[in-house]
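TL;DR need C-alpha cells for one chain.
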Amino acid sequence: MLLTERKPNMDLDLKSKTAVVSGASIGIGRAIARGLALEGVRVVGVARRKELLDQLAQEVKAAGGTLIPVAQDIMQEDAARKLTAAALAELGHVDILVNNAGGSRPLPVDAPDSAWDEALSLNFTRYRQITHALLPQMIERGWGRVINITGKSEPEGLNAAFAAKAAVHAWAKGLSRDVGRLGITVNSIAPGRIMSEQIRRNYPPEERERFSRTEIPAGRYGEPEELAVMAVFLCSPLANYITGTVIPVDGGLRRYQF
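>> reply
TL;DR here they are.
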C-alpha cells in the first residue's frame, strides 16, 4: 500500500496549511494534491479539465479532505494574475505552491522560435510568474513552500522541455538564496519515468519493460504516489532546512554521482 493511501506514522504538521497545485487533474499533480489534502491541507487544484478536477474533489471529500477545483489554462497570458486572485479568494492566503503543469516538447533542429517560446512559457515562465505573484503574501506571513516538478538533466536529444527545466533549476536555486531567511523554502523534484497518460501514450508496454530492465535499478516505472510522498514532506514544516535542492525520484535512473 502506498504511503499516501494510508495513515502516515509521522505527523507532518500540515493541518493548518493551504496550497495551490497546478496540473492537478492527472498523474503527479493529482497525487500531490490528494496527498496534501489527506494531510489536512486545504488545496486549490488547478488544471484545464474541470471534469477530472471535480472527480478528484469528490474523492478527496469522501476521504475527509478539502480540494477546491479551479479550471484554468496556465498558458493564458494573464494566468498568474487570474490564478493568484482565484486562490486567494478561495483560501485567504497560500502557504504552499506546487508548480507541476508542463509537458515534454521534443523539437527538430529547425524548429521555429514559436515552438521554443511555447515550451519555455509552459515549463519555465509560468512557474516563475505564478511563484512571484504569490511570494509577497508568503513573505508577509513569514512562511512558505515552493515545489517545482521538473525533469532529469540528461537529454536524450533536442527537447525544449529539458532546457526549460534546467532554467527552473537555476532560477529556483537563486530564489532559494533570496528568500531562505524569510521562512520560505524552494525545492525542485526531478521525476524519472513515472506512470502517466503521456508515458502510456509514448511508450508501449514492451518498451517500458525493456527500459525498466536495462536502465532503472528499481526495475520498474514509478507511480505518481511515490513521488507525491517526497513532495508532501518538502511542503511540511519538518522540511525547514531543505531548500535550493533538486531531488530525483527516479528509481535510481539518474547516473550522476551527485
